[in-house]
Hints:
By secondary structure, the chain is mainly alpha-helical. The protein has 15 helices and no strands. It is globular.
Amino acid sequence: MRSGGSGNPIAYEIHLGWAAMTTAANERATGLVEPTVPVPRAWTVRFSLLWFGFWMANLAPIQLVLPNQFDALDHAHKVRDFGIVSGLTGIAALVTLPVFGALCDRTRSHFGRRRLWIVGGIALFALGLLATGVQRTWWAVGIAWLVATLGINAATAGLTAVVADEVPDQQRGAISSAIYGPQAVGILVGVAILTVLNNNGVWAYLLLAAALVACAVPFVARHRDVASTGATLPPSLRSVAAGLWISPRENPDFAWALAGRLLVNLGNAFGTTYLLYFLQDDLKLAHPTDGLLVLTLIYLVFTLAATVLGGRLSDRTGRRRVFVAAAAALQAIASFQLTFFPSFPMAMVAAAFLGAGYGAYMSVDQALVTQVLPDARSRAKDLGIMNVGSVGPQALAPLGASVIIGTLGGYSVLFGMAGVTIVLGALLVYRIRSVP
């Protein structure tokens, strides 16, 4: 006997309506209903300020302080040491991002589940920065920086889940630009201040840790989590481990989005991680740190413009894939420019293409991935898996890049591989069917 009561269509419609009302009530009770009310401008400003401090404390060391620290500790093996440490933190990110996300989904406290992970992660990040600055061997630097990155991954679990919890679909492009727009500003301000102060030691890490905490306080102090006290995922270790596997067959769009993000970010990391060493050892600039600052400034201008414009246009048109593909293509162009025409003037042109491409890509792609999450109850965990596609390549690329530079042909080959990898990632976005 078929369910549905075809003999009484009115009763069947009443049944469907009652089921829909019950589902909506359950969603409201558990805090899993999709958000519909736009977040206010003040919320966005505080959120953006937090990310500014977060990116500055994260990326200024990678771009400037850590390379100089490894150079001072062991000049002959600086590329190897940086690659090993970055590889170690990358492996840690592959594991901890989804695990921290799963634990964040299951956290219940009066302080708030997302807020608890944001505060705890930022505190661990700041302590890791301070510890990194006082080390005197390359391996000790690596261990201290690993502690800092564990804090980064814990805070990221809460921060990215906040967007899925509280920001409606039609606003996610703009809010994603509030995440990634401050990235370029954070790099520029961090590198500029440390360059002017000529400070790459303990005080540099102290300054970055202080800025991180100061920028986080306004958002953390005002933010209150969306209530989620009803039915939740089980808190057992077995359920956490089982949830880390998301079947590509059952969730193909999630799998394609993750694969595309991995490739695009891997290519981007190939092209940017050893930029200081490229200016210093390949182009042989007399003042490579000043050159890095110039490139960062160009990158900043184009990243800011493209991040805001890309996110807002994507929200307005309701389309994501075409913006993601076009933005990735701009990054590939930048890589090929340095492959065939390596010079500082061309590096400045490439910085413009790379900034525009990366800014637009991350703002729109972040909005896209929030639309392919498999389960509203596990947003932090699923976004943690997706964040592996951003953080993992940034941390693992230095190890692969060091091999390419040392044994496979140098920086031109590295930039060429970066461009090819980005193109492949751009093509995968069109395998996603549920997002226009």
